[in-house]
Design brief:
The structure is a single chain. By secondary structure, the chain is an alpha/beta fold. It has a single domain (37-402), classed as Purple Acid Phosphatase, chain A, domain 2 (4-Layer Sandwich), CATH 3.60.21. It is 29% helix and 26% strand. The protein has helices spanning 2-24, 55-59, 77-87, 96-100, 103-110, 145-149, 166-180, 191-195, 241-251, 277-289, 373-387; strands spanning 42-50, 114-119, 122-123, 138-139, 154-156, 183-185, 187-188, 198-202, 206-215, 232-233, 235-236, 260-266, 294-298, 306-309, 312-315, 320-322, 338-346, 353-364, 367-370, 392-396, 402-406. Strands 1, 2, 5, 6, 16, 17, 18, 19, 20 and 21 form a 10-stranded mixed β-sheet that branches. Helix 9 runs parallel beside helix 10 (277-289).
């Protein structure tokens, strides 16, 4: 019912916007609804990086040994103390719903058809960390219940932290998620398993196909790449025509009319708003040549610009939805404490974006909180600045949510 209300509201906004365009000549539209597409949209929840290791793992009921192998920090609890120094005491242990905070209410209100997160954490009790790597994330397997509580459908595992605790840690991660009933994309026991797309069949609405990939620019070591006889991740060495064809070969054999194909990519550095021409061209080619309907990018610790190309959604950087960086100085200008819950309504008949509604959030007290009006306005201004060259802008609603407009 709430999902229906969401799109009734969207249709009303579209009608009002189209009238405004006729009067003012504004070059933006909010949805493809005025193309007379009447198919019920499939709503996807997309998020950036979710890091449930270190401090997050330590405040939950079950936690691993806090020992770390970082240059400056040797105990994961130090990240709790940094957060508490910044924003006050956290009463431990916390329940699973605590870390999701206000996100749970927003998710339940929209009630998306599929919930997808990039999980940047190994789920394991294995103590053998990956040598010659500076940061290692892991969460206790019994804390996987926290993912189930948020009704996560798919965890993306093509990233630079899933093998932090070795191949044994990856195997335990895959097993734990399978036992929890959560599908995985982007990692596996070999290259065939890692590249196999996840297919979610939504009865009477259509199917959603999700594949996940990690580019070398995100810091994924070369020897993490899955091979015919070695576990690992879908690692991409380059963003060229051969790579587009490689991704196409994983999508097209399974994609049927009415399916929505999501290609999720962990790419680029942690900081900076610039989107390289190579990334833009690659995202466009995924839509043109690999039959992708949504390109879901992540790796940057902060939100980046959004594009709609030929009616298809491209999120270049989703930011961190949850991490334990609270209280750590540096890079304040990027406001990495702020993120977005992305709710994308996609027409299954065409794969075109109908609407993108975004709920601004803030990481505080090691949990996800609704952002206040000032922070939501900051995100609006940033997205409008970064979207100028991409042909997009956002509007801020009275409830602090953001709605994308595109040319």
């Amino acid at each position: 019912m709430l999902q229906n209300l969401f799109f009734i509201w969207a249709a009303a906004i579209v009608l009002l916007t189209s009238l405004a365009v006729e009067v003012a000549g504004a070059p933006y539209m909010q949805s493809s609804a005025n193309n007379n597409e009447s198919h019920a949209p499939i709503v996807l929840f997309l998020s950036g990086d979710v890091m449930l290791g270190r401090a997050i793992d330590q405040i939950l009921p079950y936690h691993n040994d806090p020992v770390l192998f970082e240059q400056y920090v040797s105990d994961a609890r130090e990240y709790i103390w940094l957060a508490e120094d910044a924003n006050g005491l956290i009463h431990k242990p916390v329940s699973c719903d605590y870390i999701w905070g206000d996100a749970l209410e927003h998710l339940d209100k929209v009630n998306p058809d599929v919930r997808i997160i990039n999980l940047e954490t190994s789920i394991t009790q294995n103590d053998a960390h990956w040598k010659n790597k500076s940061i290692h994330y892991r969460m206790h397997p019994q804390n996987a219940a926290c993912l189930a509580l948020a009704k996560i459908d798919i965890t993306l595992l093509a990233n630079n932290h899933v093998l932090d605790w070795g191949y044994a840690g990856l195997a335990e991660t895959l097993y734990t998620l399978e036992q929890t009933g959560i599908k995985t994309a982007g990692s596996g026991k070999d290259s065939k398993a890692a590249s196999r797309p996840v297919i979610i069949d939504l009865k009477h609405k259509g199917r959603v196909i999700v594949s996940a990939w990690a580019h070398a620019s995100s810091g994924v070591p070369p020897d993490w790449a899955a091979t015919d006889n070695r576990p690992g991740v879908n690692r991409l060495d380059s963003l060229n025509a051969n790579t587009v064809q490689h991704i196409s070969n994983s999508i097209n054999p399974v994609k049927q009319p009415g399916d929505i194909a999501v290609v999720s990519i962990h790419w680029g550095g942690n900081w900076g708003y610039e989107i390289s021409p190579m990334q833009i061209e690659f995202a466009h080619r995924l839509i043109d040549e690999a039959n992708a309907d949504v390109v879901h990018g992540h790796s940057s610790h902060h939100v980046k610009g959004i594009e709609v190309y030929k009616g298809k959604l491209i999120i270049y950087g989703s930011g961190d939805l949850l991490n334990d960086y609270e209280g750590i100085g540096g890079h304040e200008k990027y406001r990495a404490d702020l993120s977005l819950l992305y709710f994308a309504g996609i027409d299954p008949a065409t794969g075109r974006l109908v609407q993108l509604q975004m709920t601004p959030t803030q990481i505080r007290h090691l949990r996800i909180n609704s952002a206040n009006a000032n922070d939501a306005a900051w995100l609006k201004d940033m997205l409008n600045r970064e979207g100028l060259e991409l042909g997009t802008r956002v509007e801020l609603n009275v409830d602090n949510s953001l709605v994308l407009e595109w040319e």
